[in-house]
Each structure stands twice: as structure tokens, then as C-alpha cells.
Write a structure and sequence with these properties.
The protein has about 325 residues and is mostly helical. The protein folds into two domains: about 110 residues, Orthogonal Bundle (DNA polymerase, domain 1), CATH 1.10.150; about 170 residues, Intergrase catalytic core (hpI Integrase, Chain A). The strands form two sheets. A three-stranded antiparallel beta sheet has the order 1-2-3. A two-stranded antiparallel ribbon has the order 4-5. Helix 2 crosses helix 5. It has 14 helices and five strands. The longest helix is centred in the N-terminal third of the chain and has 20 residues. Strand 4 and strand 5 form a beta hairpin.
């Protein structure tokens, strides 16, 4: 009853089928209700995935049965229960805001909110690549085309430096500086606003310079869209584009079920296998505040001889 009264106050007629403008309006309401930038990114990506699926189906009512079908679709992709539950949580939030805006029937929104996630059994360990698989992955884009130069540089950076997708998307040319006689990504703002410095191995720098020079990038974001004719477009790429680049390159390398975050896990594992100290790997990936870790451990990040310099996937000299 409360929902219906609010819908009338908005002066909009509640619907059962939402069109793209309605979904975009509800998405904006969801993102506006979140204050954390990381949460906004996660919900934005999850909602976009649902909207793509919803709009690709025949005209469907936005109701409990449709969301149950979407859950089955996510399960068929063999996604982890935690990932599926995050996506469903975003859809439930979308329905809530759509009803709050008077776009969706309150009864349909209530039904959607009753769709439960999957039960988590055990602990997911994640996926790691071997040094041989990692090298095959970043060397997969090898045609010499503009897009392959970009993809090769991006994959090398993700594997050897352990960047998150949103960190790679927002990486700017001015973020690359020389420190202690080597190149590094300086003052990288990561998850939770934590700041870290990421050393760049020489072989990764070579791949970056090859792309930057070919794309004639003088300022702004390093990674950008490339059209079919090989022309560099726009001022950045999206996180979703990185997902597709990783999956496409993995198929070329004969690898399956490889996600962008697996490259971050792999970076940690390879650094450890190469003899990297745990605290130095922690500095590299920025899992916690560098300042706090330094105070508690009495340690200082080593840049001159970094843990990710020799991890077994660099090219032969």
C-alpha cells in the first residue's frame, strides 16, 4: 500500500515491462544511493550485465520468474556462488528503486526481492595460471595490429603488476614515474582508497612503450578503444572491455575459465614462487594500507630489486 501511494505521488503509472530508459533511470537511482565508489562500480557492472540479458530476450515482464531465469543463466555460465549472489543483489536493488520511482509495480518488486541467492559451500580458492600459461596468455595477441599492441601491454601489466580492472582503466600516463632508478606506477589509488606504489618490470615497460608510441598517447589514460580500422578512439576503455580482452586472449592461448582477477591472483603466486617475501607482495598488490603494514611490520617497500622483476613470464633476451 505504501508503495502504491508513493507511485501516485510520483505521478507515474507502475509497469510490469520495463524499457531501456526505465532501467537506466532505476540504475541511476541505485548508484545515487551508494556512497562508496567501489560499490558503485560493482553494482553498475552487475546491472549492465542484467540489462544486456533482459533486453536481448523477447519482451518480458520484470518479475520473479524472469529473475529466476536470469539466475539459471548465471549458473549455466558456471560463475561462483558469490558472484551470482552479487549479481542478484544488484537486480533486487534495481527492482526496489524502480518501484520507489513508480516505474514498477510494488507487487512485482516484492516478488523479485524474494529470489534467493545460492548457498556457498566451502571456500573458493580462485584460479591461478602457471608461468608457462601466463606467458602464453600475454603473448597471445601477436599479429602486430594496433589492438594487439594494446592487449599485449594490458595483459603484461595485469599479470606482472597485479592491477585490478578499475585501476588499469584509470591508469594515466602521468602515473608512470621513475623511482629509485626504475619505472613505477606512483601513488596508485586502489580499493578502499588505499594508496600504493607498483614497480614495473623492464619487460612490461617495453610492452607499454610499444603501445603508447604506436597510439601516440601524450597524456590522459593509457588504455583506450581501438576500432576495426586500427584507429584509437575515445579517452579510455571500460572494465567490461578488459574482461573481453582477457577471455579472448585466453582462448587464443588454449586456456579456459580465465577471468581478469585470476591474473591478479597469478601475479601473487608467481611472485611467491620466485622467492618474493610476503610483505613485499602485500605492498605490490595493496591488499591493506601500505602505511599500516609498514608500521606494524617495520618494513619498507623495495623498489630497486622488486618482487615482480623475474617471475618466469618475461621474454627471452
Amino acid at each position: 500500500m505504501k508503495r502504491k501511494l508513493k507511485s501516485r505521488r510520483h505521478g507515474k503509472k507502475a509497469k510490469s515491462v520495463l524499457r531501456l530508459p526505465d532501467l537506466e533511470h532505476a540504475k541511476s537511482a541505485v548508484l545515487s544511493s551508494l556512497s562508496n565508489a567501489d560499490a558503485q562500480r560493482g553494482y553498475s557492472h552487475a546491472i549492465d550485465e542484467f540489462v544486456d540479458w533482459y533486453c536481448s530476450e523477447p519482451r518480458l515482464a520484470f518479475n520473479r520468474l524472469v529473475v529466476l531465469r536470469y539466475r539459471s543463466h548465471l549458473e549455466s555460465r558456471r560463475l561462483a556462488p558469490g558472484t551470482i549472489n552479487l549479481r542478484l543483489g544488484a537486480v533486487r536493488r534495481l527492482a526496489y528503486e524502480a518501484a520507489d520511482c513508480g516505474l514498477l509495480s510494488a507487487d512485482l518488486a516484492a516478488g523479485i526481492r524474494r529470489v534467493h541467492g545460492l548457498r556457498k559451500i566451502g571456500v573458493r580458492l580462485g584460479n591461478w595460471l602457471s608461468a608457462e600459461e601466463s606467458r602464453a596468455l600475454w603473448e597471445a595477441p601477436d599479429s602486430g595490429r594496433m589492438k594487439d599492441k594494446r592487449d599485449k601491454a594490458l595483459l603484461a601489466l595485469l599479470l606482472a603488476c597485479g592491477l585490478r580492472r578499475h585501476e588499469a582503466v584509470s591508469l594515466r600516463l602521468r602515473d608512470l614515474e621513475k623511482r629509485e632508478g626504475r619505472w613505477a606506477i606512483v601513488d596508485l589509488v586502489g580499493k578502499g582508497g588505499h594508496i600504493r606504489t607498483v614497480p614495473i618490470p623492464d619487460w612490461v615497460r617495453v610492452q607499454l612503450e610499444s603501445w603508447i608510441s604506436a597510439a601516440q598517447i601524450n597524456e590522459g589514460c593509457i588504455f583506450r578503444r581501438v576500432d576495426r580500422s586500427g584507429q584509437v578512439r575515445g579517452d579510455h576503455i571500460s572494465e567490461k572491455a578488459i574482461w573481453h580482452i582477457v577471455r579472448k586472449s585466453a582462448r587464443r592461448a588454449g586456456l579456459s575459465n580465465v577471468a581478469p582477477h585470476d591474473l591478479r591472483r597469478t601475479c601473487a603466486r608467481l611472485c611467491q614462487s620466485a622467492g618474493g617475501e610476503l610483505e613485499q607482495i602485500q605492498f605490490l598488490l595493496g591488499h591493506v594500507s601500505i602505511q599500516t603494514t609498514e608500521r606494524y611490520l617495520g618494513s619498507k617497500q623495495r623498489l630497486r630489486s622488486a618482487v615482480n622483476d623475474h617471475i618466469g613470464i618475461e621474454p627471452d633476451e
